[in-house]
Amino acid sequence: MAFEDVFPPSLKEALEAVQEVPTYGERGASRLVYNLMKLEPEKRLEVVNKLLEASKKLRPCKECFLLTEGELCRVCSDEKRSRKFICVVEESQDAYAIERLERYKGVYHVLGGRIAPLEGVSPEDLTINELMDRIERYGAKEVILATNPNVEGEATASYLASLIKKRFPSVKVTRTAYGLQFGGLLELADEHSLEKSLENRR
Ligand SMILES: [Zn+2]
């Protein structure tokens, strides 16, 4: 009997589909799909339905690219949030991690990743032109670079800093200061160190 006759077609298709998700290779897909199948059928469908709902409803905010359900996210549609401060993050989850502190009163800009030449991610793949456009339109005073504290995140921050300084010399560019206690991803940072990091920006 050939392997194709043994392997259920729906399982094959599910595994292939999940592999389309960035960072999910064959292993990631296996882990998700086989573990999902361990759930009771009812629970499993509930999980999938939530994903379906989120997939239908969520899209990037047309100003800041934060994942949101409307045309504009809640931050951009809030008149009280200052357009003079733009906090640049790699992904939506980084912005939500800062938002959870309920301290920051400016707006965000989601780059959609970081510059990573080895992975084929160049500046053109990120929302950098849109960031420049917003700095200009808003007459921003300060741009806070809150990319992740790793090699690519630092390189992306330096790249943006020099670009902004060249085009908008009067705009203050700051980088969130990270305690050595966390070299991990921004979204994993505990609230205390994240808060300190925002306060101690340089
Ligand atoms: Zn927005």
Helix and strand layout, with pairings?
Blueprint: H1 3-6, H2 9-18, H3 26-36, H4 41-57, E1 59-60, E2 67-68, E3 82-89, H5 92-99, E4 106-110, H6 128-138, E5 142-145, H7 151-167, E6 172-175, H8 191-199
Parallel strand pairs: 3-4, 3-5, 5-6
Antiparallel strand pairs: 1-2
Helix pairs in contact: 2-3
The chain binds zinc ion.
The site of zinc ion (ZN) has 8 residues, from loops.
Description of the molecule:
- By secondary structure, the chain is of the alpha/beta class.
- It folds into two domains: 3-57, Orthogonal Bundle (Helicase, Ruva Protein, domain 3), CATH 1.10.8.420; 60-199, Dna Topoisomerase Vi A Subunit, Chain: A, domain 2 (3-Layer(aba) Sandwich), CATH 3.40.1360.
- It is built from eight helices and six strands.
- The chain has helices spanning 3-6, 9-18, 26-36, 41-57, 92-99, 128-138, 151-167, 191-199; strands spanning 59-60, 67-68, 82-89, 106-110, 142-145, 172-175.
- It has a four-stranded parallel beta sheet.
- Strand 1 and strand 2 (67-68) form a beta hairpin.
- Helix 2 packs across helix 3 (26-36).
- It is elongated.
- The N and C termini lie far apart (65 Å).
- Residues 179-185 have low confidence and may be disordered.
- The protein binds zinc ion.
- Zinc ion binds at residues 61, 63-64, 66, 72-73, 75-76.
User: How is the largest sheet built, in terms of strand order?
Assistant: 4-3-5-6
Helix content: 40-55%
Could you report the average pLDDT, rounded to the nearest whole number? 90
CATH architecture of the largest domain: 3-Layer(aba) Sandwich
Briefly, what CATH class of the largest domain? Alpha Beta
Bound molecules: zinc ion
Count of individual helical segments = 8
Low-confidence stretches: 179-185
Fold-level CATH name of the largest domain: Dna Topoisomerase Vi A Subunit, Chain: A, domain 2
Strand content: 5-15%
Total E-strand runs: 6
Q: What is the ordering of alpha helices and beta strands? A: HHHHEEEHEHEHEH
- The termini sit apart by 65 Å
Shape: elongated
**How would a crystallographer describe the biggest sheet?**
4 strands, parallel
Radius of gyration: 20 Å
Domains (count): 2
